[in-house]
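wait is this the right file?? whatever heres the structure
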């Protein structure tokens, strides 16, 4: 339209990726140009003709602050700004399945052009609570430490807390290919090329790429685009869930990189930081994204699983600390295992024993109880105290538990994992030592298991041997 061709050339300031332009207040209501609204897009045209997209991030009377997607390198005060009158949009159609997009929503996989496909606005409001239903369906991942001990429930929002150097990205990719979701929407934030390639190749090799949509912001891309990836991924996921009734799993990594991008933009805007350099609205910004998780009463569901790295393994860092107040639990990944004591799923009681096998609750509690005892026995062993016969059973159980369940490379369907739990208990303990419901023990305890007293005890460690010698 002619109205969209009005250009503003009074560039006041350029700081980082932020540009400030003066827009006379009279223009906003006079019909001379498109109305300037928070979150709308604009086109920045340089003197040599190069064009860049920008987004309105602040309005102070007649001063409008714009975030330049491609950065402000080479931009001069002679540039002009044209407001488009609509917010950021992302392509939504069946054609986006199996495609890879960058941080501005443009295809980067060399596939067909999608310019003529329908577009939807991003960063809309969260769902009306009246349109939500209580989560009551489970998403199977074939990861025993999740399926058995901390179930992933449809419409849940839950992060993986970890530290740099842990294999959280390969683990997240494996959940994406094993989860029983209809569609997987992946959002990569500040990924190095190797991680991006690993995700894409993993999805392709597993044969699930045709049900996957990828939005990727690489470390070499403008940091401003990093802020758009979660909103684009969630906007597409919402459409698939509402309009097509799909069960959508959204994978985002790493939300700490997203928070760092927010911090950098806030500093450029000269905003006063609240905690360790992060802005005071960090909680609200994270909550706006996480609250997109929903089980729709008249549609499918959106489940959000993210990675949040903890600098220095510090759970009190502002990003994991704020995330913990928003989400419904967390998975704690360290040393290549999922820690059952640091992990929590607040929605698991909605599905355990209701949509899963009757023994699920009892076996989960019993396994964790014995593993806790194994940890105590290990401390006694390390301090050279005498160990009882039951302590030795606990030590054997702890070693088997870590080997068979905690390693993130283990992949088992839920029913097989429950059977393995019973088999592991039978190797170490007698039925009367389990303190479980007798009807469950009679039904599921392996009948061919030899008595625990007849099984070979685990080898004694050097620490335990020296402790016994000292006691003698």
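ok assuming it is, sequence goes like this
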């Amino acid at each position: 339209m002619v109205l969209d061709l009005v250009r503003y050339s009074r560039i006041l300031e350029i700081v980082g990726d932020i540009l400030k332009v003066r827009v006379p207040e009279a223009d906003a209501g006079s019909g001379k140009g498109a109305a300037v609204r928070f979150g709308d897009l604009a086109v920045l045209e340089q003197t040599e003709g190069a064009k860049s997209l920008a987004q309105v991030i602040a309005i102070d009377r007649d001063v409008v602050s714009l975030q330049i997607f491609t950065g402000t390198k080479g931009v001069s005060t002679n540039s002009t700004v044209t407001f488009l009158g609509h917010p950021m949009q992302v392509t939504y159609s069946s054609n986006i399945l199996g495609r890879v997009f960058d941080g501005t929503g443009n295809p980067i996989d060399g596939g067909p052009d999608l310019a003529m496909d329908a577009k939807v606005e991003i960063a809309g409001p969260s769902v009306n609570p009246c349109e939500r239903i209580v989560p009551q369906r489970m998403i199977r991942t074939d990861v025993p430490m999740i399926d058995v001990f901390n179930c992933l429930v449809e419409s849940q929002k839950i992060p993986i807390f970890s530290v740099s150097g842990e294999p959280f990205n390969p683990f997240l990719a494996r959940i994406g290919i094993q989860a029983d979701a209809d569609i997987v929407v992946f959002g990569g934030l500040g990924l190095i090329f190797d991680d991006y390639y690993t995700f894409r190749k993993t999805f392709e090799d597993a044969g699930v790429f045709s049900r996957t949509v990828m939005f990727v912001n690489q470390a070499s891309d403008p940091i401003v685009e990093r802020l758009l990836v979660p909103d684009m991924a969630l906007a597409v996921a919402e459409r698939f869930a509402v309009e097509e009734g799909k069960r959508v799993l959204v994978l985002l990594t790493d939300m700490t990189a997203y928070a760092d991008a927010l911090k950098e933009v806030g500093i450029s805007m000269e905003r006063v930081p609240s905690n360790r350099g992060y802005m005071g609205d960090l909680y609200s910004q994270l909550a706006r994204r996480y609250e997109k998780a929903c089980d729709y009463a008249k549609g499918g569901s959106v489940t959000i699983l993210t990675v949040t790295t903890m600098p220095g393994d510090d759970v009190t860092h502002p990003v994991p600390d704020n995330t913990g107040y928003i989400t419904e639990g967390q998975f704690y990944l360290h040393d290549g295992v999922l820690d059952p004591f640091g992990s929590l799923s607040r929605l698991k009681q909605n599905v355990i024993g209701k949509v899963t096998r009757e023994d699920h609750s009892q076996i989960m509690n019993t396994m964790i109880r014995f593993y806790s005892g194994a940890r105590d026995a290990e401390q006694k062993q390390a301090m050279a105290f005498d160990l009882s016969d039951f302590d030795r059973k606990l030590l054997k159980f702890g070693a088997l538990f870590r080997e068979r369940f905690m390693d993130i490379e283990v992949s088992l369907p839920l029913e097989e994992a429950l059977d393995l739990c019973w088999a592991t208990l039978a190797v170490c303990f007698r039925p009367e030592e389990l303190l479980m419901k007798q009807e469950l023990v009679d039904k599921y305890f392996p009948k061919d298991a030899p008595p625990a007293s007849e099984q070979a005890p685990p080898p004694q460690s050097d620490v335990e041997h020296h402790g016994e010698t000292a006691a003698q």
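The CA atoms of residues 231 and 289 lie 7 Å apart. so i think its the right one actually
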